[in-house]
Amino acid sequence: MSWSDVVAIAGGLGAGFLSGTIGIGGGLLFVPTMTVGLRLSQAVAQGTSLVAIIPTAIVGGATHIWRRNVLLEPALMMGGGGVFGAVIGALVAVEVPGPWLARIWGGFLVFSAYRLAMQAIRQSQKTP
């Protein structure tokens, strides 16, 4: 087993855990793991992440359905919209140069981190 194998398995384990526990998409961890840890190009990391998310989403989603934590109608509507958005996004991503994809992805991560931090601060202020 190589170092790359260990990084890939650890990234998958972490992404699966975070996806199941706090509902983030595995790509938030998959893509940085592949670009930094495995030194893959941004486009290859994003494409690989999309394929790797399928089993993670199925298992996490099935577990939450089993626990009755899912509103099926909104989930199906968002999933349907997501299919079309994914096709459009993938077609755009293959035309954007890798360094620009990395910058856009980094901006998205910073924005996501900011939003999560602000939400956590607001929640902690409400709790006595």
Q: Can you tell me about this structure?
A:
There is one protein chain. With 128 residues, this protein is an all-alpha fold. It has one domain (3-126). The protein contains five helices and no strands. It has helices spanning 3-22, 27-37, 42-66, 72-93, 98-126. The protein is globular and about 45 Å long. It starts with a helix and ends with a helix.
Q: Please state the CA-atom Rg, rounded to the nearest Å.
A: 16 Å
Q: Indicate the percent of residues in helices.
A: over 70%
Q: Tell me the number of helical segments per DSSP (H or I, 4 or more residues long).
A: 5
Q: What's the domain count?
A: 1
Distance between the termini: 49 Å
Give the overall silhouette. globular
The profile of the biggest β sheet is: none
Q: In percent terms, what proportion of residues is strand?
A: under 5%
Q: How many beta-strand elements?
A: 0
Order of helices and strands: HHHHH
Mean pLDDT: 86
- The low-confidence parts are none
Name the structural class.
mainly alpha
